[in-house]
Design a protein that fits this description.
There is one protein chain. This protein is mostly helical. Helix content is about 50%, strand content about 5%. It has helices at about 1-10, 15-25, 30-45, 60-70, 75-95, 120-125, 130-145, 145-150, 180-205, 215-220, 255-270, 275-290, 295-300, 305-310; strands at about 160, 165, 175-180, 235-240, 245-250. The chain has a 3-stranded antiparallel beta sheet. The protein has a two-stranded antiparallel sheet with strand order 4-5. A hairpin with a 4-residue loop joins strand 1 and strand 2 (about 165). Helix 2 (about 15-25) runs antiparallel to helix 3 (about 30-45). The chain is globular, with a radius of gyration of 24 Å. The relative contact order is 0.10. Mean pLDDT is about 85; it is low at about 1-10.
Length: about 325
């Protein structure tokens, strides 16, 4: 009996952050969510002088979130992410229900209109991009993709026959189908052929793996080496996965495209506060300008509520509902 007790005592209880990671992975949250939640929980612990969260509760959570809004002046979305991380910690990991946090000072969520490029501005920016960044931006504008959605495209999700792209596990963990613009088809075919050649070389070198969903990896252990699961836009270097020892390629890092777009905007003389996401805004606005139904645009964008899509109607400058300024009528003949 004593030996059993000694054996049990030799296995220490997992550290708190390791328990958080295990709980997140058990629920199949993304690696980005895991990194963000662990980061906020660590920051919360340090904010309160390295006290263990089990010794704290709603007052300490409220003080931390209020400090984010009043001292750090973070955006409302940032404060909400921190709140979600702490709720996950207490409810899922520590199994403690926090009372409603009425005393939290909320960061103000500004109401703003999305920046939209004109068609000429989109054309000028694209003309100053080359190679993979140009193709990705063409898909952001031509299919309404988010940058990460485009970077995470797999070969199997490109349907040339139906002119469709399948977006897997987009925002809100939803799949959706959007259009494959004809302007991108030829270049996309070349890109996939280049990936096929690169994948063959990787396989011969004992690599050729990519990350796949955990359930699929268990059911089909070799799925991560199949061509269909390869990234359309792979990274240039391999890495070794710490859990499996597989030599993998990650998808292209978003910063490569972000830097290219920033420089292209400068060269094109576009001085709007624009980014990669601006091309998605422009996609939606230009479709509405062309008379397409707002419900269709909602589905293409993957918005849960049409009210989110409605914001693009506020930036339209023409169409049957456009209002003409009285100043424009002063000098009518």
């Amino acid at each position: 009996m004593l030996a059993v007790r000694e054996t049990t005592a030799s296995y220490p209880k997992p550290r708190l952050l390791d328990r958080v990671r295990e709980a997140i992975r058990a629920r199949h949250y993304s690696r980005r969510t895991e990194k963000a939640y662990v980061g906020w929980i660590r920051r919360y612990i340090f904010f309160h002088g390295k006290r263990h969260p089990a010794e704290m509760g709603a007052p300490e959570v409220a003080r931390f979130l209020t400090s984010l809004a009043t001292d750090s002046r973070v955006a409302a979305s940032t404060q909400n992410q921190a709140l979600n991380a702490l709720l996950f910690l207490y409810r899922v990991v520590l199994e403690v229900d926090l009372p409603w946090l009425d005393d939290v000072v909320r960061a103000r969520r500004p109401e703003y209109l999305p920046t939209v490029l004109t068609r000429d501005e989109v054309r000028r920016v694209l003309e100053r991009l080359q190679g993979t960044p140009r193709l990705i931006v063409l898909l952001l504008y031509g299919a309404g993709l988010r940058l990460l959605e485009c970077a995470q495209l797999r070969i199997k999700d490109v349907d040339f026959a139906a002119n469709q792209l399948v977006v897997r596990s987009g925002k809100g963990a939803k799949d959706r189908v959007t259009m494959l613009p004809s302007a991108a088809k030829a270049r996309l075919l070349e890109q996939i052929e280049a990936v096929r050649r690169q994948h063959s070389v990787d396989l011969e070198a004992g690599a050729g793996w990519v990350a796949v969903p955990d359930a699929l990896a268990r059911k089909y252990p070799n799925a991560g080496r199949e061509l269909g699961w390869q990234w359309v836009f792979p990274a240039t270097r391999h890495y070794v996965d710490g859990l499996t020892g597989q030599r993998r390629r990650h998808h292209l890092h978003e910063s490569v495209v972000q830097r290219g777009v920033k420089e292209a905007l400068r060269q094109a003389g576009v001085f709007k506060h624009a980014s990669c996401h601006t091309f998605r805004h422009s996609f939606a606005t230009h479709l509405l300008e062309d008379g397409h139904d707002i419900r269709t645009v909602q589905e293409l964008l993957g918005h849960r509520d049409v009210s989110t899509t409605m914001i693009y109607t506020h930036v339209l400058n023409r169409g049957p509902s456009a209002v003409r300024s009285p100043a424009d009528r002063l000098f009518d003949a």
